[in-house]
Amino acid sequence: MTGRQKPLVKIQRAELVKFKRAPTVVTVKGASVLILSNALLSAAFVVAYALWFAPPRAPVLAVLDVGELYRLKETQVTAVLVKRDSTDEDRALALKRASAFGLEVTNLIQALPEECRCLILARGAVLGPAPLLPDLTPEVRRRLGL
Description:
Helix content is about 55%, strand content about 5%. The protein contains four helices and two strands; from the N terminus they run H-E-H-H-E-H. Helix 2 (about 65-80) packs antiparallel against helix 3.
């Protein structure tokens, strides 16, 4: 070819073909269903992770002064024993209650963690003041009648 090259295909204006848009594959309804199902599936995975794999939260702590409970019971029993006008029956009853006190305190201390859903520490095991930890001693005193 000499000079100017001739185009291989001649396209005239009348022959131009208008291309139609390809039909959309996903409709708005389909897209919303897809987004919703992805969100629900993601939420299910997060919940499953939280239930099975995530570490458990730290336990709630509370304190109990067991020594104070025994001191109060000792004071009660001593008051009955040294009282001049108390009878032998009163003294025997006080000693009987004192001997059963240990078992009563043990049963109550074993039931407390289930009731408060907490881990109970002895007051002596906590160093320094514990203003942030709830103190269960007044409640236990009330239950034991001290």
